[in-house]
Description:
Elements: E1 2-12, E2 16-19, H1 31-38, E3 42-45, H2 52-67, E4 76-80, H3 91-98, E5 105-109, H4 115-128, E6 134-142, E7 160-171, E8 180-188, E9 196-198, E10 211-213, H5 215-237, E11 246-249, H6 254-264, H7 275-278, H8 285-295, E12 304-311, E13 315-322
Parallel strand pairs: 4-5, 4-6, 11-12
Antiparallel strand pairs: 1-7, 2-3, 6-7, 8-13, 9-10, 12-13
Helix pairs in contact: 2-3, 5-6
Amino acid sequence: MIRSVVRGVGAETPRRIMHNNDFVNLVDTSDEWITQRTGIRQRHIASDDETTASLGEAAARKALSAAGMTPDDIDLIVLATSTPNNTFPATAVEVQHRLGMDHGFAFDMQAVCSGFVYALTTADLHIRGGMAKRALVIGSETFSRILDWTDRTTCVLFGDGAGALVLEGIEGETGAGARGIIASSLRSDGVHRDKLYVDGGPSTTGTVGKLRMEGREVFKHAVAMITDVVEDVLGRAGVTADDLDWFVPHQANKRIIDASARKLGIADEKVVITVDRHGNTSAASVPLALDAAVGDGRIKKGDLVLLEAMGGGFTWGAVLLRW
Length: 323
């Protein structure tokens, strides 16, 4: 059996940091209002010369360095994003070119905030199916480009950034004790489309559009949906929440993270939280949090790690892996 093992992680954030107080002159809000309702204190905002591709490339290079590999070692790039550099070609292909790769294959994955979990699962399937030996999985976003900066309910929530990891297929043991991706669960339900969406697109308006969200509706569904896929992957692996070393959730709102952890019975000290410094970076959210927890020594080889995310569509998913 082939198991997809994480070999390295990396992350990149834009140079500019925007604090909550910076919004006071833009919309009717305050640092206290934002912090109490979301847990967000700051976020990174891309400058004109920083794009989804450039951030993704930088994160990919750091992940490759951590893995002790070069672009020549990679067969596949899956890049999760809702803010591509262009409608086409795929931003993954641009990153492939930036890395100097003229081999393998690359494509984008669009599942909004669940994008990285979808991309990781997709790369794992390609590796286990023999289509690739090593893969770069990237989540990269410049959500600041699609925000309505007059809408205080959304513009304060999102930020820009990128995270990446290197997966390698190895033959060996299976089961919850072996390193690598153990189980994944993906779901979607288009009936919720109007609760979180962008009001534009090539086929409808011919424009990029702006992000729109019914925040209370998203919150109402989030905890139940997250619990659904998490319980699914734990059941498939034959483990419980008590067996987890780390829970790395999508960083959208600290209230959602806390409520989900409580419902799943995951202790606070096992939850990785970076929403305070990054805001909601959509598909970049989970790998940014992973990079932070690996970088500061919390996540170590052999740890059992649970990833989860939920995004517009709705889409939602979870991945369980042994680090």
